[in-house]
What does this fold into?
Amino acid sequence: MARKLEMVFRDALGKIMKISVDNADENLTADSIKSAMESIISKNVFATETGDLIAIDGARIVDTNIQKLDFE
It folds into this structure.
């Protein structure tokens, strides 16, 4: 199973920017994710063409199950 963290931010013009992290840890909590996102904003880690990230829009963890089909 693949597990991915998607963090969604708003930039200075209100546009959405999504940051995805593959192989997200099983022990992530909402508080730890929110704290990391606040740190990204306060340290101005990323800039977009339409301005700095200024707000958290949301986050989600996506689990994907892949089943290979064998044909005989």
